[in-house]
Amino acid sequence: MSVIFAILFYLATLVFVVGLLSRISLYARTPAPLKIPTTPAPTTKTGVVFRLTREVVFFESLFKANLWTWAMGWLFHASLLLVTLRHLRYFTDPVWGWIAFIQPFGVYAGITMLLGLCGLWVRRLFVERIRYISTPSDHLWLVLLIIIAISGLMMQFVSHTDVVAVKSYFLGLLHFSIGTLPADAPLMLHLFLVFALLALFPLSKLLHAPGVFFSPTRNQTDDCREHRHLSAWGSKMESEN
Amino acid sequence: MADITAPAYRTIPIIPALKPGAMEGKGPFIANEKHQEALGFPGQVPDDWHDKAIAKMGELLSKFRSLRVYMDACVHCGACSDKCHYFIGTQDPKNMPVARQDLMRSVYRRYFTFAGKYFPKLVGARDLTREVLDEWYNYYHQCSECRRCSVFCPYGIDTAEITMAAREVLASVGLGQKYSNEIIAKVHKIGNNLGLPEPALVDTLEGLEEDVKEDTGLDIKFPVDVKGAEVLLITPSADFFAEPHIDGLIGYAKVFHATGTSWTLSSMASEGANFGMFIGNYEQLRKVALRIREAALELGVKRIIVGECGHAWRVAYSFWNTLSGVGDGADETDRFAQMLQKQLDHRYKQPTHICEFTWDLIQRDALKFDKSKNDQHIITMHDSCNVARGSRMGDLPGGQFEIPRNIIKAVANNFVEMDANTTRERTFCCGGGGGLLTDDLMELRVKGALPRMEVLNQAVEEHGVNYMAAICAICKTQFSKIMPVYGFDRRMVGGVHQLVSNAIILGDK
Q1: In chain B, fewer beta carbons within 10 Å around the N or the C end?
Q2: Do B348 and B413 belong together in one domain?
Q3: What ipTM is given for this predicted complex?
């Protein structure tokens, strides 16, 4: 079982990293032939950095759009960030000081993450418009994340897993040596679903994470009159006639 | 027209319930063979339309980062779902921006993604059938490319980009839209959307000079093709004779007259509109824009000023520098752009919006006004979508909102705002933009105007508003046509420069 999970770990990580990098490189290589920032837009590069930061950290546009979706979505994402950081302790030895510091908050974040996810799912199930646009995969992603959160919380609050053994298992994997993974059901479920999430990330709507940085309506500077913006294929037309 | 009634006002801001299929089969007329072929598109749907359409999609995905990213990034969060005026007015769920995008995204997933190829049901992927193609035609012509949804999307997904791509795919398999394609062909052949040839244009403008002389006693000129003029005015051709547009044109001419600016129109480029944007075809967009470059070079003008037209200003402000070099900052080695940029006077922004021009003069005290001449008006401002969300005026972001308002306040005493959720970057489209200003879409146009009419009605009841200013030829035409359906006087809509025209004090100095 330890070997199977080791293989899944390596496989999922590989698919995640390679898949994500290839997608990002595809986005980066695809030209943006016209200036299409949604205005009013920043007129400088620094301004664009601020705009994207507000978008990524505070979900500015979503806040303008719908307070409920914003609250649930932000709660989920901020909690997920804390929870993920908290998990770095399984991969570092000695544990970095600030990771140790956030440990207690990370536990609560697990709960708020679950709340956020449930809120988003309730919205998807009961708001007519959102239900209309939902595909089965939209629901399944939420179910997947909810089970990940619940199985994680179970290890904390219901049936304690030997986290010391888990840590030594993962530290071993980092050096390509496969140790023994505690054979607990919640742990295996938790890990299996996380690996599934990693592997499916570059094939799915989770690409919204890198996508937002490449969105021309958000990342372009409004300096159309001051600088000539030209794509390679656009400028080729000029030499043709 | 007679059988189309206005939908009832909502108690704001209730989100309407869904009425699936409400706008099925309500799309515009399809372009005939002649209009398709004039633009280099196939005249009929070819037998291998399926493969051609998919190939075209692949081509667009590789050429436009917007489309590439936007096909992947949507998470179906629903932020945009209640933001479209056509959804609010028609209640058809496929007019929700996300659902409109999904018409194409479902096909994208089927042919271009792993999940859609192997698990289509799971991710809502579907084959491109003839029914799907027809559905595209119907609903991608119920989007005015106004970009309101893109303001609210957490990833900035712009449905306009997807609509443009879809229309481009449709045209490439013989399903172009009659209205837009017909107009673009006229621009190429004659020089403007209305198909008004040079002699008729000159004649019209001479008549206008006489009318203005009768009115003011002054020799205010409307020059055409004057070589060596300082300013080339590019304005929507509706300004030449449509009501209320023409009063705006008179306003521009009075401002030029008051300051002794030498200016000219061009018979070759007597059109500010660029429907190439509406059909999403870069080549057409560029070709229409190149006429203006050609006219500017031929007439040797120093400045290019653009009249009151929404999408024309987006194209001019955001795209001209790219397409035709009208702008600044081209590379030393960029011979194409340098040819024109060396000729233009870079003490001024190139191109300049007529509102920027007038506001600059007002700030320098170069114009005098009798504000009381506009006292019969209680004025509000309808921000036109393309100006609001696709362009700028002045040096600061948001100048496109401030400058027209500043002008109104400088020439009139009574100005009030409408509900802030429906102005500035949150403004609603008039319901006729994006190539939809055609009689075969009248039901859509009436219903799409609902959100704006609701808010206008509030302003009328609270403040007695009787003049809604807009700086867009399409807004002006659309509103003067559909406002009577909502029980308003068609003359309630007018330009900003119509107000300038009313109040400006001319005469020998």
Answers
A1: C
A2: no
A3: 0.96
Token code pair at residue B399: 């100048």
> What is the domain extent for residue A151?
2-30+41-221
For the domain that residue A140 is a member of, what is the CATH number?
1.20.950.20
Into how many domains does chain B fold?
3
Q: pLDDT by residue (tens digit) across B302-352? A: 999 999 999 999 999 999 999 999 999 999 999 999 999 999 999 999 999
Q: Residue A166 pLDDT > 70, yes or no?
A: yes
What's the confidence (pLDDT) of residue B509? Answer: 45
Q: Is residue A241 part of a domain?
A: no
Does any domain span residue A235?
Answer: no
Do B63 and A31 lie within an 8 Å CB cutoff?
A: yes
Residue pair B269/B291 in contact by the 8 Å Cβ criterion: yes
Residue B390 and residue A36 in contact, taking contact as beta carbons nearer than 8 Å:
yes
Chain B residues within 8 A of A215 when measuring between CB atoms: 66, 69-70, 73, 155-157
Q: Is the Cα dihedral B34, B35, B41, B45 positive or negative?
A: negative
What is the domain count for chain A? Answer: 1
**Same structural domain for residues B285 and B228?**
yes
Which of B144, B176, B208 corresponds to the end of one domain?
A: B176
pLDDT > 90? residue B441: yes
Question: Do residue B276 and residue B385 come from a single domain?
Answer: no
Contact B252, B497 (CB under 8 A): yes
Is-cis flag, bond preceding B199, omega within 30? no
* A228, part of any domain: no
Amino acid at B121: K
- Residues in chain A closer than 8 A to B401 (CB atoms): 40
Contact B467, B377 (CB under 8 A): yes
d(CA A183, CA A78): 31
Range in B8-17, B257-266, B328-337 the model is least confident about: B8-17
pTM: 0.96
Strands B493-494 and B231-234: what pairing?
unpaired
Asked if B226 and B350 sit in the same domain, the reply is yes
* Residue B1 belongs to a domain: no
pLDDT per residue as tens digits for the range B58-94: 999 999 999 999 999 999 999 999 999 999 999 999 9
Whether A36 is covered by a domain: the verdict is no
Across chain A, what does the average pLDDT equal? 96
Cis check for the bond before A94: say yes or no (omega within 30 of 0).
yes
Is B67 a domain residue?
yes
Q: Which of B161, B337, B105 lies closest to A32, judged by CA? A: B161
* B412 part of a folded domain: yes
Q: Do residues B479 and B493 lie in contact, with contact meaning Cβ atoms separated by under 8 Å?
A: yes
Domain hosting B213: range is: 191-356
Query: Considering B335, B356, B377, which residue would you say is the last residue of a domain?
Result: B356
- Chain A within 8 Å of B74 (Cβ-Cβ)? yes
State pLDDT tens for residues A90-112: 999 899 999 999 999 998 999 99
User: Quick one: which of B187, B172, B91 has its CA closest to B136?
Assistant: B172
- B78 and A CB contact within 8 Å: yes
Which of A127, A133, A207 comes nearest B72 by C-beta?
A207
Q: What is the DSSP string of B245-314?
A: HHHHHHHHHHHHHHHT--EEB-STT-----TTTTTT-HHHHHHHHHHHHHHHHHHT-SEEEE-S-HHHHH
Residues B198 and B88 in one domain: no
Dist. CA B240–CA B247, nearest whole Å: 9
